[in-house]
């Protein structure tokens, strides 16, 4: 069993006990524990179930590479799934539950998959669930979804907050081990602005655990002194608990700082997302130990050798009383020595190498540890816990020579440098034959904006596995990043001499199918040696395809343990060299990032900016039901009492048509276009002529994209000889202003035109209805009579002592004035109109009333009648397209034969025979099917409403043949599968002669 | 997250303050032009692995459009220049040619 030792543990504080729960069971640990070390201290080796076969899973590693020990952390609004216990700092009150099991961790029904595993090989989803077709959706998928998957989705809104922070540095050092600290020291002493990131709460990396001696002192002392020295330097920022997530273009690095993960609810943000922009990056990210592939290597109690050592040395935790060490390199001997020195039993070291030499080997022998060379684990015995190992010759096929009882196995297959950050932005790797790993190629490093190398690997991350090489390499990396010699001498490191490692990809090397089916490569996703070999036999020669077919390396650990082993097995199966098969692509994030941290403060009310009209507060105080229009909020309608929204809208329309209504039109885009060439420019921008518009007059205009499709519309006003004011749609203001600038800056840069988006500088209020003139006359100050201010004219003056420009334009069909005043006067004018309008029955109306009234008049709406595939000609707007102009934006596009075809769907009005409202999105079916077997169509609805004015449903839509089919009865689809009959009519439903406006 | 220097205001702008406008130095074909000319103006875009000329707008800065020459593979930026030109400045072309002898021209 695993337990806490009576002494030892360099990171824990035995005077600070911490209590926590796992699956409801109360447990105790110490400050300085990780959740993993605390679970092991409580003999909780079994922590989860695998993804596919639901096999028991125990802790394998001691760092971010952990594939198995993922738990649900916290409860309620602080619930987080898939948290790695090995990187979770313990605190009192922590609650964790295991994942991916039903009904319980100890007894899991899904484990039945394990007993039929031979029928669930690689790619079984693709092979098995193809027929019958309907079964995927209704049978297979629901069952797979129930049994697959790891953590659960949190059910409550996150109680924590997250924030962004920004940092800058000349040199960013990722990794606070001895290489990172040495590199940072060299760079900082040379005067560079340096930032150092360490993923854990502790600096020093592996060196203090491994017993390196630096400058004659234990590594721990050198680490402490160096961190102190760096922290004292003004040009250095040292950050712990901060994980570099990814390296991106031009020195952009994302890093996630765990601020309050270990102190939840203390008021600080849970995490801080750092957006760093740096000159050069030094990755001193160390290496990750590889597992060995032997049968039963997934049984709880089989762990990485260095992790076993970490738990003993860092946390005073033994993972077993009797630990068998199995290795192909010298480093694992350190684990055997550490265990022995802690008073634990190491029955045997199984070394796959035929001959072993070196200081560590000698020391192990001197401690009396039995070493067997040329030997392998044939099979691990045990179910939910290791009970022993069967030993055989590594060169053999699996004949058992001996069985040894043990309760833990420490394995080491060699070390793979953490090359992720070097590779994210295009860095290339070389295969190192001697160490059997990929390491960064300094000659093919990722480059920055100047074409220079941007990322330098240092120390173990650069493939240098012993301490003496590491520090010299760290200074070299600093010098390279600085572009000059730092002049700093590397500290000297004394390390034991190590022998060469031997690449071992399966154990024993001649193992047959029965053993290979129990050799795990990817623990989380249940990918075994046999699966990768099967994929190779089935023709998967690309490592990227094999990854996706077998799911090797696709789990939350992203193959940190499994990739190299899987790659080697694939290469062997294909009879290829490993470097020729290559690696899969390394992509950010290095480890999973909390979505909350990516969102930062962008949630709730400040998810996006909110634009308010100058009259917004009045609306909110007077029953407005708001709808989003772009970033604006506009009143959809103003409700009174218990009235429904529909009833409000109908009341607002009927009142506007019989009395007078007010619309807050402030959000309409307003762009000033000014200059000697402004008229020429507008003639290019609009489909009709704007240069000949008289001063004081208004004209409706259309804008198209270069492809000819209708993009925006609005009224253009000629303010003076060289100045026009272009009204755009609410959503189009910024886009159209950008469009204008694009053409002026990039195509017609010699034209003398200036544009200014003054949308927010003016409030605009539409006063519409038969009593609109009486209302304005009551305010006084301007002559708004028909003679002085005819339709499509404007005049400037003072209305009720407010400076105003009054346009006689109408989107409702009523007698209508649109009054623009400086934004600061908007609310005053609105309140004046409401007050003065009481005797005329004035009411505000919202966007829905506006929409329905314009539909009653057959006016088109950008976004309803248009969808980016509609040209003005489709909407019977040919009258607004100049035939005389040689050119305008979109003219050439509209000449294309498909757009000029008489077969295009064109605008018409529709009235159902029974007065009902055609459903939104309804189609007009046609006979027959298209080549895809879908029913043919001959038209569709674009706007459809109940008209309170006319007391029936009205609609506009596009139909093949357009108004040429006037009077014909067609059928529209309904959601329930039925049809509704409608007659093709003139889209102007109300006041066809325009008499209401002509007063 | 590229950094491009705006040639108007001199700011070394991060990509978040810029808006990409696609390929630079397109020739506009208007009314009366041949179908294939219009098609290439509208739709045919280069997608090189290597030197590329692009339109960028300093949207959240000075608002000006400018042009940039960069390598799509290595992310090296050869230079940025004002948009009011029909072709890249000669010194920039010479610089690119010196760095990339195989470059066939914009």
From TrEMBL, chain A:
Keyword set includes Repeat: no
GO molecular function, one term: sarcosine oxidase activity
Presence of keyword Oxidoreductase: yes
NCBIfam families to which the protein is assigned, alphabetical: soxA
Highest taxon in the source lineage: Bacteria
Species of provenance: Fuscibacter oryzae
Swiss-Prot/TrEMBL keywords: Oxidoreductase
Family membership noted in the UniProt record: Belongs to the GcvT family.
Record InterPro entries: 2Fe-2S-bd_N, FAD/NAD-bd_sf, FAD/NAD-binding_dom, GcvT/YgfZ/DmdA, GcvT/YgfZ_C, GcvT_C, GCVT_N, Sarcosine_oxidase_asu
Domain GCVT N-terminal per the UniProt entry, residue ranges: 615-885
Chain ranges of the FAD/NAD(P)-binding domain: 170-431
SUPFAM superfamilies: Aminomethyltransferase beta-barrel domain, FAD/NAD(P)-binding domain, Folate-binding domain
Protein name per the record: Sarcosine oxidase subunit alpha family protein
Domain Aminomethyltransferase C-terminal, first and last residues per copy: 906-991
Domain SoxA A3: 517-600
Automatic annotation (TrEMBL), chain B:
Coiled coil: none
Gene Ontology MF, one: sarcosine oxidase activity
Gene3D superfamilies given in the database record: Folate-binding superfamily
Alphabetical list of Pfam families matching this protein: SoxD
GO BP of this protein: tetrahydrofolate metabolic process
Protein name per its UniProtKB record: Sarcosine oxidase subunit delta
Organismal lineage: Bacteria, Pseudomonadati, Pseudomonadota, Alphaproteobacteria, Rhodobacterales
